[in-house]
Amino acid sequence: MIKKRFYLIAAALVLLCGMLIGCSPQADASCGEDAVCEHEWQDATCTQPKTCIHCGLTEGDPRGHSVRIGTCPVCGEKSTELLPAYNHIMSELNSMVDAFTKSAEYLSDSYDFVTDLYQKEYVSKARTELYSCKRLIDRAIAFCADYEEFSEVKNKLNQLSAIIMDEKIMGEGSYKDIRSEMMNAHTKSLAILQNVLSDMKNLLA
């Protein structure tokens, strides 16, 4: 009788030990944290860390998207990390278009440039709009910061700033000559601005 009890207890201990030994590679996510799992790892993705396909244990960090805005070429998902900065830059660019358009209107032939008085008045108004553009450019550049994604946009905005703040436009001289320089600057500036807007649109592709 005693021997029979001994064997029953021994069998129960063997069974218990078997339950406590870790899961096999075919086990589900039922492996507990204290169980021994022969981990089979799935590589980290853009959004998920390295993960055991059996017990769900994770290790390390997600790889992160290969871009910080637009479509990630690795996983195909949209990355929105830089979207707030993007929206701020676009707001400044749209305001620039309005300011450049208004400035160009003051220089158009629809205004009376016969007398120096009128030339002075409309050139002065055009300059005011260009100063507004300069402030908008500076704000847009600030939002570009040192982000690599916005580096080309930042370079073009610096070019734009140099054009509209040129001494031939903002310095002394005949209003006729200044107007002529302003009109040339507008042509160059609008071309650059259109390129910048195209670059920004491509970032979201």
State the helicity in percent bands: 55-70%
Radius of gyration, in Å, reads: 34 Å
Strand arrangement across the biggest beta sheet: 1-2-3
- Give, in order, the helices and strands: HEEEEEHHHHH
What's the main sheet like? Answer: 3 strands, antiparallel
Count every helix, treating DSSP H or I runs of 4 or more residues as helices: 6
Q: Report the uncertain regions.
A: 14-30
Looking at the overall shape, the CATH architecture of the domain at 82-203 is: Up-down Bundle
Based on Cα principal axes, name the global outline: rod-shaped
Which fold name is given in CATH as the topology of the domain at 82-203?
A: Four Helix Bundle (Hemerythrin (Met), subunit A)
Share of residues in strands: 5-15%
Tell me the name of the CATH class of the domain at 82-203.
Mainly Alpha
Keywords:
mainly alpha, Four Helix Bundle (Hemerythrin (Met), subunit A), 3-stranded antiparallel β-sheet, two-stranded antiparallel ribbon, 6 helices
Structure commentary:
With 205 residues, the protein is mostly helical. It has a domain at 82-203: Four Helix Bundle (Hemerythrin (Met), subunit A). The protein has six helices and five strands; from the N terminus they run αβββββααααα. The strands form two sheets. Strands 1-2-3 form a three-stranded antiparallel β-sheet, with no helix packed on it. Strands 4-5 form a two-stranded antiparallel ribbon. A hairpin with a 6-residue loop joins strand 4 and strand 5. Helix 2 (83-107) packs antiparallel against helix 3 (116-144), helix 3 runs parallel beside helix 6 (175-203) and helix 4 (151-164) packs antiparallel against helix 6. The longest helix has 29 residues, at 116-144.
